[in-house]
Amino acid sequence: MDELPKKIVVVGNGPVSIEIAQFFNLVETEVIFLTNNEELIPGADTFLNDYILDKLKQDGIKLFINTEYKSSGNDTIIINGEKIEFDLLINANSRGAVLPPIDINIKLTENGFIEVDEELKTNIDSIYAIGDVNGKSYLAHVGSAQGLFAINNIQGIKGAMNYRIYPLNIYSVPEMAQIGMTEQEVENEGISYKVSEFPFMANGKALIEGNTEGMVRIISDKTFGEVLGVQIIGANATDMISEAAAFVEMEATIYDVSRTIHAHPTISEVFLEAGFEAVDKSIMK
Amino acid sequence: MDELPKKIVVVGNGPVSIEIAQFFNLVETEVIFLTNNEELIPGADTFLNDYILDKLKQDGIKLFINTEYKSSGNDTIIINGEKIEFDLLINANSRGAVLPPIDINIKLTENGFIEVDEELKTNIDSIYAIGDVNGKSYLAHVGSAQGLFAINNIQGIKGAMNYRIYPLNIYSVPEMAQIGMTEQEVENEGISYKVSEFPFMANGKALIEGNTEGMVRIISDKTFGEVLGVQIIGANATDMISEAAAFVEMEATIYDVSRTIHAHPTISEVFLEAGFEAVDKSIMK
Predict the structure, then answer these.
(1) Which of A98, B8, B247, B270 is most exposed by smallest CB count within 10 Å?
(2) Distance (Å, rounded) from C-alpha A225 to C-alpha A247?
(3) pTM, entire model
């Protein structure tokens, strides 16, 4: 294309569809966002999904959630019986495995992914499948982790891949990130839990930088205080989630979070304050 | 002052003196930096001290390290027998405790700080002294931690304050931060250790953002792999140190660091790569 399109339709769900929709909205293209899913980002906490849904609405993006559509030629789509014209349609849906033309008879799942066992081995003894081809995760870093896990297994270092402790990053405006269990998962498992929040608005460094939108949310087990999940909304949330990843990986408690001295002035103090909030109450709120 | 000074002398050591010197250099004031200490930042790893010394030289700041000086009137200073004129002298040296006029007979140390015991109690049974008045640390977040520690002690929750696990942040250009033991401390204790480094230059997100200067350095125990200390140089190092703080606080090993899935693309992947480097070798280096 030589020029930016005037009007686009983004079809899909997950981080990439939101990132693309917000980008085109930013460069003043009219954006229609369309998904046949109930959630914008499958696997993300409802808190994040609700937040970004509101945000896209505020951005002026036309949203059709949980909606079926029919294609009608190259530049028209039919949504709820209505014809909608566009200059460009971007399909950001997830897709099945794409295999090169090979003679090896790799077994696929019903959904079109490569079938693997717990060690990520395919039906062919010497072939492993890692990354989005096996349908377990569409995230690059989970693919990398699967690669290391598979190699370890081949070398005899056995173990189980834990699909609960991986970060999910959304490069939206504002950025969003999560790690560990969502509040809905914790609820479904019947765990007695506590949610402690701290807003960026009450953080000195965030005020200095003018990035006051957002918050950190820690979901912790009520009995022992274990940090089960963390969600962050705000500038640099995608990099900040790494501290939460360290705590969750180490099976840290909310008491550990509260004991960890955080430098002042830093944005990272929001973790400390959310920790205080869980143990007793935050100082700066 | 109505105008920026043409020429200043910054006397002192520690983060603030470096931050002020670089600020005035940035706004094109001629800067002379003067300290009678051997190190620019007492307590910082030699690696950081050497790095920032080179940086200040490159910035064009005139440096007098480990140098005595004599004041000679309001706008002149004598260094090594030479008279140097200035418009402004900024004293960023640390100073003793400043007490309000009080009738209570608080005992001071030889260096002019308030004397406290291990619980941070002064010679008066009902008075505790926290923060830089007690001379244990000039850092605001260590002062906060002392406050919480003292209150816990008063409430009967006893424990020892660990002065080894606190972040040291320098808001220089580029930013620098450290946590835990320095390489020199590890050496002095005769611990068998390993240093693993990873440069920002080899990190995808750092390349995208154009912030390729800097690196992360992990100092780990060779026997069990415990992460003993971490140093970071680079954009946002002061906030990034919080992930290292989480690992050090949790007594994590280099294997824990390598196992923690870090989102892609993020700057935080430098921790993962430095972890790989310690265990075997980094992937992206």
Answers:
(1) A98
(2) 12
(3) 0.95
Range of the domain at B144: 95-137+139-166
Residues of chain B found within 8 Å of residue A206, distances taken between Cβ atoms:
none
Domain assignment of residue B229, yes or no: yes
Task: Determine, yes or no, domain membership for B22.
Answer: yes
> Considering B34, B62, B92, which residue would you say is the last residue of a domain?
B92
Per-residue model confidence as pLDDT tens digits over B233-270:
999 999 999 999 999 999 999 999 999 999 999 999 99
E strand intervals along A111-208 = 168-170, 176-180, 193-199
Would residue B264 show up in a list of annotated catalytic residues for this protein?
A: yes
**Residue in A140, A265, A266 closest to B242 by CB:** A266
Evaluate whether ipTM surpasses 0.90: yes
- B285 is a domain residue: no
Q: Are residues A188 and A252 in the same domain?
A: yes
The answer on A232 and A154 residing in a single domain is no
| Rounded alpha-carbon distances, angstroms, from residue A54 to A25, A175, B39 | 15, 14, 52
Helix (H) or strand (E) holding A78: strand A76-79
Interface of B with A (CB under 8 A): 139-142, 144-145, 165-169, 177, 205, 236, 238-243, 245-247, 249-250, 252, 256-257, 259-268, 271
Distance from CA of A151 to the nearest CA of B (A): 14
What's the domain count of chain B?
Answer: 3
**Residue B155 C-alpha from the chain's centroid:** 31
